[in-house]
Amino acid sequence: MVIPLIDKNGDGQISVEELAAWTGRSMKNFYKQEAENRLKTLDTNKDGKVSWEEYIKGAENRGGFTEKQKQRDKRRFDHANAKEDGLLSRDGLISMFHPEENPSMFGAIVEEFMEFVDTDKDGFLSFDEYKGKTVDTGSMDQRTAEESFKRLDQDSDGKLNKEEMKLWLAAVNTSSQAKNQAKRQVSMADDNKDGVLGEMEILNHIGVFTGREGLRTGEGAKDEL
Q1: Residue 87: strand pairing partners
Q2: What's the pLDDT tens digit per position in 122-131?
Q3: Which residues are paired to 51 by β-bridges?
Q4: In the chain, where are the structural domains located?
């Protein structure tokens, strides 16, 4: 039982903050293990790093690697290469495959995103373009999309510029996802409505924490991007 590991203050109750911290740590540990596995697969010369040539070879070996994907990945690779030595470490691979975790990646991802969504090519994201990526794909209803767009539109000009779009990316990083998921899970399992979870509440609603319901918030947010 992991409840004692989550219950940091030892009061026998799980708060939103404790659950969010646990979820965030678990997600980050998963990203690290995922990157370690990629490093083992792609690092053919076993120097502990992945070069662009090694990455391309690995991607081409998997098949279906288009020229557009190659251009996208090169942009991500270059931004993730913090030392500018042409090599990615484990942390660099995390940045490449989970760019929402690294603010220095936001510029590259916004450019990438705009290539697909900015249909009128004016350099901004209108609500109709935003709606096409949220409401029309089923990841958000109309009202939620309108509220989200208004919140992101900091200068209230009816469109999102690239800096405002970076706020969208920041909203789907591990910390934000974990907090939103924890709030949702506590709300669903908190039978006595005291704002925290006891052991029986967790056990009575175990599917909220272990099934698809427990994963939906983070996956939905990332699907938008």
Answers
A1: 51
A2: 999 999 998 9
A3: 87
A4: 3-123+161-223
